[in-house]
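Lab manual, section 2.4: Encoding a predicted structure.

Procedure: take the sequence of the chain (119 residues), apply the prediction step described in section 2.3, and record the output as structure tokens. A sample record is shown.
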Amino acid sequence: MPQITVGSQAPFEVASGTRLVNALEDQGIDILHRCGGNARCTTCRVEFQAGEPSTITKAESFKLAEAKLTGVRLACQISCEADMQLQPLMTLSDSGLPDPGPRPADSITPEPEWLERPL
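Recorded output:
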């Protein structure tokens, strides 16, 4: 089972194939996901310190390019397959919003088309 480490917190295990955004929220990690995990809003962005996946969905790649974001990934578009160390960048506690957004589905949406992540 992959281990996820967030900042300086103790690592936690998650079932392989779990959506990263849901794994974080299920552990009580403060992260936004305003669009419900559909790669439309970029509020679930994370920065990796280690273990960044080598693949990216076409939807994530498009949204990051559209928003001119580099050095970050969208937690809603990442499947937990290996150990990762990361930090959420947009949090409910810093947002002033009443909730993080609707819970994303268990599987990645939209249906993922996988690409190799450019280095």
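Check your result against the sample. The chain has three helices and seven strands.
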